[in-house]
C-alpha cells in the first residue's frame, strides 16, 4: 500500500491557510490525517476538511509530533519559531513566508519551473513571493526558448496579499467612502502592518509593499529581484538576468496584475513566438485576442490555479524587447496552490 501522510496546516484560519485546506482536499496527496493549527486566538474554531469537521488547535512545538508534512502560512516569525521544531520531529515543511527563502540550503520552488531543486531540501522548502511566482510562470517558457536578458516589472497587487485583515480593511474603507465618511481611521494595516504610518487603500494606490529599505526599494521589490534569480538561475545575486521592480498595492481584493517588460537574447523572436511558448507551458493560459478585447483581469482569475498572460506586444523602439500583462490569483498560484503543488511533487518524487 502506498504511504499515507499526516499533514498539519500552520495558520489554518488565515486567508491563505483556508485555501490551503481547500487545495489539500483537492490534491493527489494520500492523506491519513489533517491537523489545523493557529494561535490561541482561534483555538477551538471549527473548520471543514472534505467532509470532516476539524477543531483548530493552538500551535506548540509538540503539535508536530507524528506529523509528516507541514504547510505553513502564519507569518515569518511564526515559521522561524515552529518549523525547526517540526523538522526536528521528522516533518518536511513547505513554508509560504519569506522566513527561509534566501537560506542557501532551502530550495525556493515553483514546480513547473525548477522542480529539481526540491531534491536538495533539508526539511524546509520555501514557497516564493506571490508576485514572483506569477512572473516566473509567464517568463520561464520564454527564457527556455529565447533566453532572457532583462526584466522590468511593475505590479498591481491585491489587498489580500497582506492577509484577511487587509481585505476587511479595504471593504470598510470602500463603504465609508461611498457613505461620505472619513476613511482614514479605518487604515490600521496597509501599506504594511509593522510600519509607523497607515494609509487608506480604497480609491487609492500605495507604492509601498512591505518595508521601505535604505536602498530606496521596498522589501517586496527586493524579493522580486532576488527570488527571480534564485528560481531561474539558482543564484540570488546572478547578473545573468537583470531584474528591477516597482510594487504597488491597488484596491482589488484578490489577484495581482503585473506589467512586465523584458528583453530576450534571440532577437529573431516575434510576439507570436512568445505567445506560442507561453500557451504551451503547463499552468499558463494565454488570453490575448485584442480584436475581441480579450486580456487577463483579476475578477476572472480569482479562484483559478492558472497564470493568465496577455497584451503580448513588441517594443517597436527596441529589438528583442516585449511588453506583457500577467494576472493570477495571489492566494492560489501565488500561495496556497503553489504550496500544495510543491507538496504533491515532494510526494511524487519520494522526497518526504
Ligand atoms: P489566528 O486566526 O489564531 O490569528 P492572515 O495571513 O490571513 O492574517 O492569517 C494569519 C494566520 O496565522 C492565521 O491563521 C493566524 O491565526 C496565524 N497565526 C498568527 N500568529 C500565530 C502564532 N503566534 N502562532 C500560530 N499561528 C499564528
General description of the model:
The protein is an alpha/beta fold. 29% of the residues lie in helices and 23% in strands. The chain has 8 helices and 14 strands. The chain has helices spanning 15-25, 76-88, 130-146, 164-178, 219-233, 271-280, 298-301, 332-348, and strands spanning 5-10, 31-38, 46-49, 52-55, 57-58, 69-72, 92-95, 124-126, 148-157, 242-249, 256-264, 284-286, 307-314, 321-328. Strands 5-2-1-6-7-8 form a 6-stranded parallel beta sheet, sandwiched between helices. Strand 13 (307-314) and strand 14 (321-328) form a beta hairpin. Helix 3 packs across helix 8 (332-348). It is globular. Residues 11-17, 38-39, 41-42, 59, 74-75, 78, 163-165 line the site of adenosine-2'-5'-diphosphate (A2P).
Amino acid at each position: 500500500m502506498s504511504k499515507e501522510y499526516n499533514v498539519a496546516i500552520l495558520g489554518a484560519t488565515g486567508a491563505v491557510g483556508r485555501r490551503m485546506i481547500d487545495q489539500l482536499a483537492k490534491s493527489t496527496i494520500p492523506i491519513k490525517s489533517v491537523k489545523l493549527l493557529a494561535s490561541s486566538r482561534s483555538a477551538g474554531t471549527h473548520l471543514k476538511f472534505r467532509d470532516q469537521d476539524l477543531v483548530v488547535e493552538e500551535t506548540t512545538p509538540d503539535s508536530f509530533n507524528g506529523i509528516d508534512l507541514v504547510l505553513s502560512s502564519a507569518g515569518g516569525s511564526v515559521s522561524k519559531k515552529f518549523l525547526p521544531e517540526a523538522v526536528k520531529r521528522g516533518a518536511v515543511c513547505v513554508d509560504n513566508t519569506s522566513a527561509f527563502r534566501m537560506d542557501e540550503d532551502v530550495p525556493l520552488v515553483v514546480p513547473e519551473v525548477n522542480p529539481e531543486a526540491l531534491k536538495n531540501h533539508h526539511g524546509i522548502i520555501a514557497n516564493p513571493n506571490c508576485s514572483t511566482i506569477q512572473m516566473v510562470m509567464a517568463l520561464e517558457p520564454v527564457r527556455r526558448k529565447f533566453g532572457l536578458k532583462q526584466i522590468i516589472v511593475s505590479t498591481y497587487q491585491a489587498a489580500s496579499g497582506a492577509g484577511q485583515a487587509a481585505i476587511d480593511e479595504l471593504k470598510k474603507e470602500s463603504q465609508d467612502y461611498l457613505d461620505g465618511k472619513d476613511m482614514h481611521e479605518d487604515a490600521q494595516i496597509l501599506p504594511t502592518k509593522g510600519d509607523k504610518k497607515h494609509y487608506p487603500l480604497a480609491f487609492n494606490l500605495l507604492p509601498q509593499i512591505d518595508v521601505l529599505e535604505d536602498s530606496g526599494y521596498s522589501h517586496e521589490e527586493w524579493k522580486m529581484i532576488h527570488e527571480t534569480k534564485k528560481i531561474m538561475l539558482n543564484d540570488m545575486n546572478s547578473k545573468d538576468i537583470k531584474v528591477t521592480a516597482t510594487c504597488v498595492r491597488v484596491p482589488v481584493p484578490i489577484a495581482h496584475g503585473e506589467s512586465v517588460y523584458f528583453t530576450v537574447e534571440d532577437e529573431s523572436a516575434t510576439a507570436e513566438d512568445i505567445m506560442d511558448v507561453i500557451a504551451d507551458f503547463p499552468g499558463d493560459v494565454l488570453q490575448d485576442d485584442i480584436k475581441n478585447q480579450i486580456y487577463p483581469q483579476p475578477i476572472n482569475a480569482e479562484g483559478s490555479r492558472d497564470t493568465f498572460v496577455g497584451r503580448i506586444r513588441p517594443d517597436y523602439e527596441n529589438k528583442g524587447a516585449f511588453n506583457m500583462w500577467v494576472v493570477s490569483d495571489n492566494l492560489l498560484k501565488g500561495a496556497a496552490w503553489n504550496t500544495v503543488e510543491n507538496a504533491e511533487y515532494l510526494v511524487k518524487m519520494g522526497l518526504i
